[in-house]
Design brief:
The chain is of the alpha+beta class. The chain has 5 helices and 7 strands. The longest helix has 16 residues, at 88-103.
Length: 153
């Protein structure tokens, strides 16, 4: 991925969670810590987990992996640090840049994500070109999640 003087991206390490100030997703992320590391350690082109920085400040953990049910669909996730509210343009631009890389993966026809149903998340997803698909009731810890999708052109 292209790097700018302030923007950088590297594979995720479990110690990264100690440096991040996570939002509402903190408990869920901590419960999935082993899976994040597994994706980071994977040598498959279709699996990845990394962390994006703006300068020395973590912006978000991001990753992708293929859907088990639909091999042409890539599931993406973004776990933001609270710093994204201080640097929203850097956050938006870095996610857009990262999604372009995911769109170029061999065989990817659809990118989808499951998100907490929050107004700010809805706004982010729409601005990134995703379309709301449906709500999945009681998806994690009894919470409803919104499914968003984007067709790869």
């Amino acid at each position: 991925m292209t790097q700018s003087p302030k923007y950088s991206w590297r594979p995720f390490k479990q110690a990264d969670l100690e440096t991040m100030n996570l939002l509402e997703e903190k408990d869920i992320v901590l419960a999935k810590n082993a899976r994040l590391q597994e994706l980071s350690d994977s040598e498959k082109e279709s699996e990845f987990c990394g962390i994006a920085f703006w300068g020395e400040q973590p912006l978000y953990i991001g990753g992708y992996y293929p859907s088990e049910k639909y091999p042409f669909a890539m599931r993406v996730f973004i776990i933001p640090d609270k710093y994204v509210f201080e640097a929203p343009i850097a956050f938006y631009k870095s996610v857009k840049r990262w999604l372009k890389q995911v769109e170029q993966l061999k065989g990817a026809k659809l990118i989808y994500s499951l998100c907490m149903p929050l107004t700010r998340v809805d706004t982010w997803m729409e601005s990134l070109g995703f379309v709301y698909a449906k709500t999945i009731p009681s998806y994690i810890n009894g919470e409803d999640y919104a499914m968003w999708g984007k067709v790869v052109k």
